[in-house]
Design goal:
Structural class: alpha/beta
Shape: globular
Number of strands: 14
Mean pLDDT: 86
Largest sheet: 8 strands, mixed
Strand content: 5-15%
Radius of gyration: 23 Å
């Protein structure tokens, strides 16, 4: 563990309160309360749909509150409304411009001055907007110049408000996967945002930390420069696995000395876990297998689209479902990424033959999932899990379920290796349905031993995670005392 000596939407800027402190209608701004405990900002590049990222934030909040009961949390997020709804507190937009908002800008784009929607604008206003666009198209160079000026003008304004927000905070935490990665939008999306918030935290003189993050080794040179600078400015750094630390060491040599602290979702307190969803009653004594698919390579749902690869995955998963139904298993369809992975389930079921479709009413349950707790509640009742996304597998392990992972990314391989579950790891590019069935047969024979192995891993890493939470709480408490 290294603490260095140096000191990252649907919530648009117009939704930020005047002081630039918090958004999320009806919730207090961070500047309205005083001396209620340390204020901690959580930077996360998700929009509420990734349930693994949501679980990480809830685990972080719950564990720090065990140490600092009066701590107040705010999010720095792609979707402020979602953050406030799921995690409470206030929220601030992670990016300041439409250029940098990327795919998370949906609802903000439908807002207009005074809270009116674009649809409610007058015909005159619409005609004027169309006229301006037409005029700019006639002079492309002028249009590009004005767009650049507007873009960076908003970015400067966002930086000013972000600095004012950070001045009210005692700690800025960057945690979870997807932080040291540029697959979703390139270097000027999250890598730049990460660098910007790290720099603003240093100027605002509050501790900025990077905790249990993952890294990918395919980042562009520009992204590597942004992420390297952000890592160097961190007061504390840790990585969720040794491979991520090795990749980060390529960004900055300082990372080579940092701690490995496993994924924060593993530290969800027992008190936060839900009761079983009651699926076992539906199974009527059958062995229950949960299947959590992924929208891997699906056009419109994945950064690197590949229709042929996605179709192959869906076909093999349909064959898995068909074979499990034939063997009289009860199946539960779940997902850990709202909308994206959920959209794959109808594709899988559509490929089933008539015999399999007839079995669905008696042998399949499609869960109702809108939060990570819904997912875990469904997993509590199952015997085995077949997962294709990292946090589907992690939340399965949190639920102590023997899991077959169909890996789409090295991070899944690393996680399965750390848990000693590599015997049940398949690769998304070349797995066959028969491989899944064979892995399940082996898991059944070793079920009790695997469950004990999962429990042993969790007990072992909780002490490591506890040390990290102690360090983060101490940084927040020290800065809070300094400010007060």
């Amino acid at each position: 563990m290294i603490i260095t000596q140096e000191r990252s939407s649907s919530c648009d800027e117009k939704d930020v309160v005047k002081s630039g402190l918090a958004c999320g209608g009806g919730h207090h701004s961070a500047g309205q309360s005083s001396k209620q405990g340390p204020r901690i900002a959580l930077l996360t590049p998700y929009n509420g749909g990734n349930l693994g990222d949501a679980a990480i934030q809830d685990a972080l909040i719950a564990n720090i509150r065990l140490r600092l009961p009066d701590a107040q949390f705010s999010g720095i997020s792609l979707n402020c409304d979602e953050f406030v709804e799921r995690h409470g507190g206030g929220a601030f937009p992670i990016r300041g411009t439409l250029l940098l908002h990327g795919w998370a800008d949906g609802r903000a784009a439908n807002q207009a001055r005074g809270g009116e929607t674009v649809a409610g604008a007058s015909c005159q206003e619409k005609q004027r907007a169309v006229g301006i666009k037409s005029a700019l198209k006639a002079v492309p160079l002028l249009g590009r110049c004005l767009k650049t000026i507007h873009t960076w003008g908003r970015e400067v304004r966002h930086c000013s408000r972000a600095y004012a927000f950070l001045r009210t905070q005692d700690l800025l935490i960057v945690s979870g996967g997807g932080q040291l990665c540029d697959r979703w939008g390139g270097p000027w999306h999250h890598p730049f945002a990460l660098f910007k918030w790290a720099l603003l935290a240093q100027i605002a003189q509050i501790p900025y930390v990077v905790a249990s993050v993952g890294a990918t080794n395919d980042a562009s040179m520009t992204s590597r420069l942004f992420m390297s600078a952000a890592l160097r400015m961190a007061r504390y750094r840790s990585f969720r696995d040794k491979d991520s630390r090795e990749i980060a060491s390529g960004f900055t040599r300082l990372a080579a000395r940092d701690s490995i602290v496993p994924d924060i979702a593993f530290s969800l307190p027992t008190s936060e876990l839900p009761q079983p969803a009651g699926v076992r009653e539906l199974a009527q004594g059958r062995t229950i297998v949960a299947i959590s698919p992924i929208a891997y390579a699906k056009p419109g749902r994945w950064p690197r689209e590949d229709r042929a690869l996605h179709n192959r995955y869906v076909q093999q998963m349909a064959s898995v479902v068909s074979q499990l139904l034939e063997r009289d298993y009860f199946l539960v369809m779940v997902w850990s990424s709202l909308a994206d992975d959920e959209s794959v389930i109808p594709e899988i079921l559509a490929l089933l033959d008539q015999r399999s479709k007839q079995k669905l009413t008696r042998q399949m349950h499609i869960a109702t999932i809108s939060s990570w707790k819904d997912l875990v509640a469904s997993l509590m009742d199952v015997d085995f899990l077949i997962a294709s996304r990292l946090h589907s597998a992690i939340l399965g392990f949190v639920s102590r379920k023997p899991t077959i992972a169909i890996s789409f990314d090295p991070k899944v391989d690393w996680m399965m290796g750390d848990l000693g579950q590599a015997d049940y790891l398949l690769q998304i590019g070349d797995f066959e349905a028969d491989d899944v069935i064979e892995s399940l047969n082996r898991l059944k024979l070793r079920k009790d031993g695997v469950i004990e192995q999962i429990g042993s891993y969790q007990r072992r890493i909780l002490s490591t995670l506890a040390v990290q939470y102690d360090a983060l709480a101490q940084l927040a408490a020290i800065n809070y005392q300094r400010r007060n």
